[in-house]
Amino acid sequence: MSELLVQHKEIVVPGQILAKGMDFFPSFGTYRRNEDIVANRLGLVNLDGKVIKTIPLSGTYLPKRGDTIIARVTDILMSGWRAAIYNSPYESMLMVKEASNDFIAKGADLRQYFDINEFFVAKITNVTSQKLVDLTVRGPGLRKLRGGTLISVNAHKVPRIIGKKGSMVSMIKDATGCRITVGQNGLIWILGEPKQEVIAIKAIKKIEQESFTSGLTDTMKQYLEEATGTKVEMKAKEDEVQQ
Amino acid sequence: MSYERPDGRKHEDLRPITAKAGVIKNATGSGYFKIGNTAAYAGVYGPQEMHPKFLQNPKGGVLRCTYNLLPFAGMGDRVRPGPSRRSKEISLVTEKSLLPVVDLSEYPNAVVDVFIELTETDAGSRCAGICAAAIALADAGIVMKDMVAAVSCGKVAGNVVVDLDYKEEAYEGEVADIPIAMVPSTGEITLLQMDGPVSEEELKQALEMVKPAIQQIVDAQNKAIRDSFGGVKK
Hints:
The complex is a heterodimer of chains A (243) and B (234).
Chain A: E1 3-4, E2 11-12, E3 17-20, E4 25-26, E5 30-33, E6 36-39, E7 43-48, E8 51-56, E9 68-76, E10 80-85, E11 91-95, E12 119-127, E13 133-136, E14 149-152, H1 158-162, H2 167-176, E15 179-182, E16 187-191, H3 194-209, H4 216-228
Parallel strand pairs in A: 4-8, 11-13
Antiparallel strand pairs in A: 1-3, 2-7, 3-6, 5-6, 7-8, 9-10, 9-12, 10-11, 12-13, 14-16, 15-16
Helix pairs in contact in A: 2-4, 3-4
Chain B: E1 17-21, E2 29-35, E3 38-49, E4 62-69, H1 85-98, E5 110-120, H2 125-139, E6 149-156, E7 159-162, H3 166-169, E8 175-183, E9 188-192, H4 200-230
Parallel strand pairs in B: 4-5
Antiparallel strand pairs in B: 1-2, 2-3, 3-5, 6-7, 6-8, 8-9
Helix pairs in contact in B: 1-2, 2-4
């Protein structure tokens, strides 16, 4: 007797009934009220068999273990650094032990490693229930950022900017010749020729704006070809929201 | 009893509604709600770090609402800016009317700021503010079990009517004004204030009359939210 009331990828609002009956199961962004499954936040419906979830479209970034983010040093303490996570209500900690592969002696001047206001790419190692966030910069691709441009986008559009297996971001990298690092918190670092950087930023903003449209990879390919005047090769022609 | 409303509406009719979402680009979420000549903007910022720190709640996020009239929003006289006794009370009841649906347990020590500004008022401003705030909260991706919609009802010249405008509120005889906020799916009442004499039967009748009006408002709110995202689609 179960009945599905929405389609895959439909936009749903809080309180909207997605399905009736006990044959479906609520997942992220939904809850069960009596026998119905109801959305509890704005998002796109994602149907996976009998499991219904919603993919958020807006909102701030909530730190999650394993995410790679871009953070800024706000304070230097005895045992490490305090860093601001952009687009998020919480701060993070980078311990001395996690800051370098080299040994940092006790009492060393920590500013030599990370000074206040410097940005770095880090991985979240732990998040407590009270949202105390621990970071590490020991790992591949994790480093201090020097030069380049930082832009901020909606953190929920990041999967779309990265694309499936990084297809979208590598397309922008190849087309513009820029180095790009995308943080899960919505901060994106771009380093390249000034003109190419501008093209990359415009491309990313375009993805952010048109993230709901289907066939976005093709649109972006065309856009980048027009902007750079060169042929863009696509590695993988897949256009799905990566979650 | 044939009471004619000043603008010719039927007793259960609402004034024309305009609702929009995403009107303030820098905000996490925003909403606009206009009913008749009462218009409210709401901007939601956060969840963000809460200051002053002593107001932080380690058990969950805090909802903080601010209701304000713009200086030109009154009917003739300039409204003095800043918090007043009236606006503080309305900020508080707005907060209380939204709290039952929002879930901020994922955001300890953080705050969600809701700023409600009214550009024009013609009675029912707290209701318009709540409607705009609900749109803004949903637009900001806050976890909510349902929407909230609010409308006033009351008694004018012995008749129970929905959505009073200023002319009716200022009616010379006996007037009762009852703003109501409701969670549409459960019928839960999250705000009910009473100003003026009403009998038990009349109140019950008013509550029944409000339900279809609330549903109508919720439909407008939901449409506004969907349109603001679907509008990008080509």
